Amino acid sequence: MQTLVGSARSPVPPVVREKKRRPAGVRSWLPWLFIGPNLVGLIAFTLGPMLAGLGIAFTRWNVLSGLGGIEWVGLDNFAELFADPKFWKALGRTVFFAGLGVPLSIAFGLLLALALNRPLVGRAALRVVFFVPSMVNTVAIGMVWLLVLNPSAGLLNQALRFLGLSEPPTWLVSEDWALPALVLIQVWAGMGYQAVIYLAALQELPQDLHEAAMIDGAGAWRRFRAITWPSLMPTTVFLAITSFIGTSQGFGLIAFLTGGGPGESTTVLAYYMYQSGFQAYKFGYAAAIGVVTFAAVLLLTLLLWRFQKGRGLYT
Amino acid sequence: MTRSRTDRTLRTWVLSVVMWAIAVLFALPLLWMISASLKRNIDVFTLPVTWIPDPVRWVNYAEVWAGDPPLLRYFGNSLIVATVAVAGELFTSSLAGYAFARMRFKGRDRLFLLYIATSIVPTQLLLVPRFMFFQAVGLYDTLWALILPSMFTVFGTFLMRQHFSAVPGELAEAARIDGAGEWSIYWRIYLPMAKPVLAALAILGFVWSWNSYETPLIMLSSDENYTLPVGLTRFVDGDGGLAGGLSMAAATSSVVPMIIVFLVFQRQFLSALSRTGLK
What we know:
The complex is a heterodimer of chains A (315) and B (279). Chain A is an all-alpha fold and 315 residues long. Chain A contains 13 helices and 2 strands. Chain A has helices at residues 14-21, 30-56, 76-82, 85-116, 123-131, 138-148, 155-162, 178-204, 208-215, 220-245, 251-257, 269-279, 283-311; strands at residues 59-61, 70-72. The radius of gyration of chain A is 25 Å and the shape is globular. Chain B is an all-alpha fold. Chain B is 72% helix and 0% strand. In chain B, helix 3 (71-102) runs parallel beside helix 6 (144-151) and helix 3 (71-102) crosses helix 7. At the A-B interface, helix 2, helix 5, helix 6, helix 8 and helix 10 of A face helix 1, helix 3, helix 4, helix 5 and helix 6 of B.
């Protein structure tokens, strides 16, 4: 990054290596011509906004006076945030939502992948069926589940009544059940993707360990615990990290299905941020929520990373 | 020996039956969506559920496509956004990926690390600044606010770099000896070989763009600019409680193109997806 002029090489040994490696005729600015279009766009639309996001968190913006209405307020937004009971409740709901949804969808994804990795009748078609929800946009998913979860005539409650539950939950219109219902939808929509990633990893696993363990008389569960699970650890950590970061984090579903309600029962952090910024026009406050979310995700990522380093089979 | 083989066949059959049963349950919501899309509004909720609509109202689709809200318009917007965004992404990421993989320059590895680090930033952090930026430059409420950020992706660059790193370098050496310039080595030799990966990236990018809901929700305000997912919300009546036959016809219409894309390009699609998981 520091040097656009590659000729500013250090005079010590690397010179020789550089010379040997750099093919004749490649000019030092040429790589930047290739990377340029992508890098410029990335700086404008991702890196720049990222830094700006950090900055905006320390400002208050009066939208009506345009960009001139931005005022530096130091740590005010964060002080307000940490004293805001709505924030803590939203954080709690986020922990519930992700803490339940991510492990569930990963677990179901893994089970599904293990099953689909065996010989099955119509296996290709099965894979398609389970993957299809991953191709459906959030709003269509929401509309379908609005039907399925309809308290009186929805598919789910009809089934529950048939099974003898006389008063099934009212799901999206109940303060207690709306968030679990969103977890259910998220798991249904996401497990096909998780399964595809796991399947790819399963097919890369060397078979010899399994065969050796089989000869030693290890049962299926034992083989899973001792070989498959540890070998899949990098994949599991990858899926956990990406699902926690997950662009949606339920925000889309919540925006469409519940609008944070009933009451505040589904106002998770991502949605609280949306409300603060795009409905209450407190952009500095919203950015502060974004920064806190980022910090939490970063911490979680590092923790998972360390965890994997200790556990993976090939590390 | 034969015993264990029959044993195994039996197990395969049992597992198959179980999996198919689960698959049917799993698919019920979407099957109901299709079934409801062919019903009159009053027939959507019946006790017990009717799976085969009676009468079958194909006219729901005709109404939804011709009427207001303008589904056709949303459809066109989604198509424009996805096509332009994907074309841009293919162009910029193949170039950058190629340089990261096949060229040596100072700071390359550090820059690539920065790329990777960027991918763990949650989109939420980016929403506010992007919104303010597009407001300031007058692109708020235009399709460009959706297209531009998706043209320059870390993911695409990463995928292309992975591919170009795995291609042997001898071809370039040979071409260089023959006096070919760097651009023509890239354009004539390496890019044509990357066609399968480019196809995979194109399909993934197209689907992501098509299904994207959060960004258009924030960046667009006028109905005529809506993309499909945001436009779909207009088919649900105010209280959001009852989504009838017409709204299901609209939802089905938004989903079918993606399912066709998936069925046609299944192999490329799944291989690209699984590549994202193998670092």
